[in-house]
Amino acid sequence: MLTLALVLSSAFATLAHEVQPTIADLTVQDGQLTLEMRLNAEAFVAGIDLDGLDDTNEAAESDIYDQLRALEPAVFEAELRAFAQSWLPGLRIEAGGPVALALDAVTVGEVGNTDLPRETVLRLTGPVPAGASDLTLVWPDGAGDLVLRQQGVEDPFTGLVAGGATAGPIPLEGGAALSGWQTFTAYIPVGFDHILPKGLDHILFVLGLFFLSTRLGPLLWQISAFTLAHTVTLALGALGLVNIPGSIVEPLIAASIVYVALENVIHEGLNRWRPLVVFGFGLLHGLGFASVLGEFGLPPDQFVPALIGFNIGVELGQLTVIAIAFLAVGLWFGRKPWYRKAIAIPASLAIAAVGAWWFVERVFL
Asked: Rounded CA gap, 143 and 120, in Å?
């Protein structure tokens, strides 16, 4: 129960404060470098150290962060431009010499639901020294993860850069694309990280499957159905063949958590329709996974290895959740006659309560 308590205590903070990587598109054309970044700029301006951080609520500056998200775009843009003057020197690009970056444009999203982060786009530009053949980029300490994507060349570089780390050398003419094996291994931790620690809604859904029964048979039926379903829609979503707005998918994912948790209370074991229901909900969760994968950007030439690596990472994350739940609860209490009434039902009701709150929040707040 300790594991569940820890998950639930953070779950009520919702996914609104989850730390997402900065996405940057790098282009060099006619001697001019352009770096266009999509980022959660309020976290930067608030002074939050994003390195290794999963939830901005854990930062001492979380109140400042929340206040910044409520500012009108023009007001926050002024704050951001002032911040950029001191922050930009830490973002260093070398291409046969330093590239003098300047803030070319800022686009701040409108104020919507202030419980959710809004997207800001920064466009930086700078002249590339004559004769440069490659470049390196130093991402500042405290800036969290950066997904760097080279544009406009064949076999472009795509990589994940941690705060304080260096990317490159990256050939300006292209050719730095990862091999299939490198892409596969690079995307496994991306998928795992989306479950543990960042996928609270997926964690609660998997725990809902676990609390129906600690016996291996029912659990395997459910996990197999869930895995098959989310693999299908993850692939379709990543290919762009299915595209359902997050405003629809996210509330339905919350509803799926409520359903499986309440069914644990009503039924004592696996019924004939449970795997089919789990399969249907797996289709929804796969679309959620696809949206995250879309943020990172799949390298066109290595689509299949990246997709397989991400999916394996997701599976390893789910299996880790189940293993932790079994070691914490199932191993010790799963065979006890009082397990269902004392542990499974209360835990399922708690999971249902969180799912219901998420549904209300995602639909009405």
From this structure: 15
